[in-house]
UniProtKB/TrEMBL annotation:
Keywords: Signal
Signal found in the keyword field: yes
PROSITE patterns the UniProt entry points to: PROKAR_LIPOPROTEIN (PS51257)
Pfam families in the cross-refs: DUF4847
Membrane-crossing segments per the record: none
Lineage of the species this protein comes from: Bacteria, Pseudomonadati, Bacteroidota, Bacteroidia, Bacteroidales
Top-level taxon: Bacteria
Database matches in CDD domains: lipocalin_MxiM-like
Keyword tRNA processing annotated: no
Name this polypeptide is given: DUF4847 domain-containing protein
Cleavable signal peptide: 1-20
Amino acid sequence: MKVIYKIVCLFMLLPLFAGCNDTDDVAAIFTGKTWKLSFIAREGETRMYEPFWGISKEETIKKLNLANTYTIKFEGIVEGDVIEGKINGTTVTSNLSGTWSANAKNNGFNATIKGQSDNDKLAENFLEGINAAASYQGDENNLYLIYKNSKGTFRMFFRVLK
């Protein structure tokens, strides 16, 4: 009986030794793939935010559906809970490049990316959103960059480009 009691007590202590990791695997989320912008929405909504584009919804969708446009690709090295490195991307007419970092502990995000928007309202918002993004959410298949501007809080929806 004492042996069974000791075994049960040992099994009850097991969860104390199995720590819980509540940080994201930032390397798996960000690197090794190309992310394509699906749309930008107001925080809390899941439909495209249209008023600030300056172009029609149909034209925006047409631009987003062009091959190899509005994409970003992250390269980086993880140190502790932080990953940082280079970011490259595309719009319809421009290549983009810069630096970025993400914090797995607090979902913080920071990027400085440069490129030409060439009077393309969607490209302007794409660049603004990446540069203003302060946090991220997501996993290996879906990435959301959250940013604020004078019009409110927005979420950029990205999917993995196959």
